[in-house]
Amino acid sequence: METKIFKSSVAFTLESGYSIENLQIAYTDTGFEKGKKTVWVCHALSGNADVFDWWSGLFGENQLFNESEYRVICANILGSCYGSSGPTNHDEFPIFSSLTMRDIVKAHVLLRRELRVSKVDILIGASIGGQQAIEWAIQEPFRIKKLILIATNAAQSSFGKAFNEAQRLALKADATFGNENGGKAGLKAARALAMISYRSYQDFALKQRDESDKVDNFNAASYLAYQGQKFVSRFSPLSYFSITKVMDSHNVGRGRGGVKAALSQIQAETLVVNVSSDFLFPLCEQAVICKHIPRSQFGRIDSIHGHDAFLIEYAQLNSLISNFLYKSKISKYSPLKLNYHEQ
């Protein structure tokens, strides 16, 4: 799908006080047609604007979200290396190492206005995409009609921050990080760390099992090396550093009286989806979201694949979303029996 570029004629001011001159946002848009509902997709950490490519089990011909029924929009986030303003197309890296989630959403709002989208019928995101979506639904509560939040949270956990910091330490341990075309070894190591958090014990046990007499060259090791090398070929170390910091800034309650008060501002009918084996964004985090959004419904993907199940378990995801969109009754999920603390 063709990626378009929006270029702003005015400086874009960030929460940090920095300004981005000549801001550009890469995006895809299937186009307005009367009668079509607008679906806006917020992509995950290393995603791009072409949602029909990376989320093909939900978006595409003969899929739940198809061009004949929906106007589909997806914007590449600031800091990325897929066309939007980021450290790969601007000289000043400190600007992008100080990005926040609210800066990302502010750019989405700017593009929404440019595209003359007055209402977003369905706003959907998973992982960091869900973090964007929930923040946006608070910033513009009356413009978002339905909200779908998958494997995400209302505030980045200390556990998630620890994983992200470990990845940034791996990046900085590479002496070439920050140099032109440098940081590749660090990025490979960082991505290997991330892959552990994206999967589960059961997933590794099933897919990376070794022969019983093996003492070296284990399948798990070669899998991580392969995933890291593949990632290096398509992503930027500087962008990876920037976007992990964006995730760590995520806290909808900041300056709003806490998470509970912030979530209560959301007006959209909301589906909150948990992945049963996701230890990076566990059930307790979705419980907090579902408890405090006034019109919320809970769904669960049962899977051994961990956090990445939202890119794998399409049959379950399609069923959950279809039931949410086409059945008028909104059921309230009660997490009262769960052992969790308020954020």
Give the gist of this structure.
The chain has 343 residues and is an alpha/beta fold.
Spans of at least 5 consecutive residues whose pLDDT stays below 50 are 335-343
CATH superfamily of the largest domain: Alpha/Beta hydrolase fold, catalytic domain
Global mean pLDDT:
94
- Order of strands across the widest beta sheet? 1-4-6-5-7-8-9-10
For the CA atoms, what is the radius of gyration?
Answer: 20 Å
> Which percent range describes the beta-strand content?
15-25%
Instruction: Count the E strands.
Output: 10
Find the structural class using helix and strand composition: alpha/beta
Percent range for helical residues?
25-40%
Order of helices and strands: EEEEEHEHHEHEHHHHHHEHEH
CATH class of the largest domain: Alpha Beta
- Largest sheet descriptor: 8 strands, mixed
- For this structure, the CATH topology of the largest domain is Rossmann fold
Task: Name the overall outline.
Answer: globular
- The CATH level-2 architecture of the largest domain is identified as 3-Layer(aba) Sandwich
End-to-end Cα distance, whole Å, is 39 Å
Structural domain count:
2
Structure overview:
The protein contains twelve helices and ten strands. The strands form two sheets. The protein has an eight-stranded mixed β-sheet with strand order 1-4-6-5-7-8-9-10, sandwiched between helices. The protein has a two-stranded antiparallel ribbon with strand order 2-3. The longest helix is centred in the middle third of the chain and has 16 residues, at about 160-175. The chain is globular and about 60 Å long. Mean pLDDT is about 95; it is low at about 335-343. It is α/β, with parallel strands linked by helices and about 350 residues long. It has two domains: about 5-155 and about 250-325, Alpha/Beta hydrolase fold, catalytic domain (Rossmann fold, 3-Layer(aba) Sandwich), CATH 3.40.50; about 160-250, Rna Polymerase Sigma Factor, Chain: A (Orthogonal Bundle), CATH 1.10.1740.110.
